[in-house]
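Students often ask why we bother predicting the structure of a whole assembly rather than each chain alone. The short answer is interfaces. A chain on its own may look different once its partners are present, and contacts between molecules only exist in the joint model. In this exercise we take two input lines together and write out one structure for the complete complex. Read the inputs first and try to guess which parts will touch.
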Amino acid sequence: MTNNSYRAAGVDLAAAARALDAIRVAVTSTYDDRVLAGLGSFGGLFELTDLPERPVLVASTDGVGTKTMVAAQLDRVDVLGHDIVNHCLNDILVQGARPLFFLDYIATSRLSPELIARVVTGAAEACRAAGMPLLGGETAEMPDVYRTGELDLVGTIVGVVGRNEIIDGSAIREGDVVLAFESGGPQTNGFSLARAALGGRYTDPLDPADPDGPTIGDALLVPHRSYEAAVRPLLERDLVHGLVHVTGGGIPGNLVRVLPEGLQADIDTTAWPVPPIFGAIRRAGEVSLQEMYDVFNMGAGFLLVLDPEHAAEARELAGEQLHEIGRISRGTAGVTLDFPDED
Amino acid sequence: MTNNSYRAAGVDLAAAARALDAIRVAVTSTYDDRVLAGLGSFGGLFELTDLPERPVLVASTDGVGTKTMVAAQLDRVDVLGHDIVNHCLNDILVQGARPLFFLDYIATSRLSPELIARVVTGAAEACRAAGMPLLGGETAEMPDVYRTGELDLVGTIVGVVGRNEIIDGSAIREGDVVLAFESGGPQTNGFSLARAALGGRYTDPLDPADPDGPTIGDALLVPHRSYEAAVRPLLERDLVHGLVHVTGGGIPGNLVRVLPEGLQADIDTTAWPVPPIFGAIRRAGEVSLQEMYDVFNMGAGFLLVLDPEHAAEARELAGEQLHEIGRISRGTAGVTLDFPDED
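Now the answer. The structure tokens for the assembled complex follow.
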């Protein structure tokens, strides 16, 4: 197989040609002067400019899990491109890195140029929004490896941060507050549990009392948000002690990764609004509250840890609502979750 | 899902613990001073040092295709780690880039820590041989996406080259020779065709006259070679006009990508030894000679295009046999293959 190919062997219809053209247009729409696209035809060349002092590359590879299955079933695969790009952006943002470029890999049971075009177009939109070229990609058709109609989507991001500007949680201290950005939904985590709990009832209304309102599928497929634009001004003002992308493992599994030895975080689960989709999953699958918080972000997609004196400035710079959901104290309990008394 | 996790949810046996320990040991064995592993626990930090003038990052994402199926069936998945790393190394070598770091993604129907450990250990060995850290990775278990027992393996490499040292084929001129490194087998390309042709007879002897000799499976699973060490000295002496990694599309599909306008390459297919596995595939599947050369590397895994006056020096620096397989001439025929008269 060959990088940057997006070839669709064995498919030679006019629709395929249009799809391949749409892919080319989408990918090149993300290019800027740093992409040396004219040099050779193997692609993937990115000139490093404006490097910080002592530049450190930050790289991350990830997938979107079985959100692919829900998106494919509801014919909404375009959201997956946004999901994988924004997920990766957040994964390097937690260390303070700004994005340089992105690569994708799409493998399916049967290559459909139209499907690839929809995923890549979504990815290219998210890349453009982040000012990050979609530098390369690969597609693979493997009917003996993938179940019929299924796909996997993998993204890799490379970013850069100055060695002295890396955020790693070591600045977190007693008395700091934990602020949360809203997620709007499960983003790309917990879909195996969500699918098992919901049993495929994606076209049912999310709120039985509002049959014309959003469906369960609409709520599940809310795209993964990028927190880059909202968090960047706080990094530039050096306000942040720790950053957390709430992915698999939920708040406890991810916040604990930045806590210095001897400090714990006490989270009040009533301090932010939990989107209704989580209640729907919980009721449908009779999932315990503890498991819900251990698997899903529960509406808190990205966390900031900072000095309470800077909370007001952080809110202003972020330009959106930030919920104060917890405090850092001395202790060895890791992350504690305070639930209401209902469970 | 979370980067760098290698978590094995739901598996808590002693064997799993040993496998996870083996993964940790293998991954950290690839680290050097450039990996900032102590900073935070999200991983994936690589300090840029010794940059060339006008540094250009070269990145590539790729998979190993359905070689995974043959390796899984023969219980030889360790080879896949070597395959993906070396494939990626060659993919950036064609532009003159030296490797910086590598990331992997392994997804299966059912996460087995032992299987992941074997793949990652192979990848770590290949990374160490290339002086390149295995900076991060991700595993995913998706039984509803992957067929039972199947896996996919995706690698991403990032390397660097000075802007003025990029090899892109533009230096290729009339009269240049094409030299070929041997591959030893199909490497990671053409496994869908090979599997269809061979019908699963992997344990049969490759040579029916030598029942104790290598099997068809042995020949298929010869690891993908890295040509980095052999080619690097030629790049340092500025001997090379064009480089070609012979992957999907074979010699014609890949050599054509570096040919400047108005030049063609005429290849003599009798000029290098074709490993017996290709004859076995061809006979078993009644595949035409043209299709064989359009799909497989046919024993020529990596090509150099250079001035014939430099061929002797190139052979000496490479330290191994280089077969002169063709010439560059004026013309618009692209890549022509001269077959013997048997087909």
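Check your guess against this: Residues 14-165 of chain B form a domain with the 60s Ribosomal Protein L30; Chain: A; fold (CATH 3.30.1330.10).
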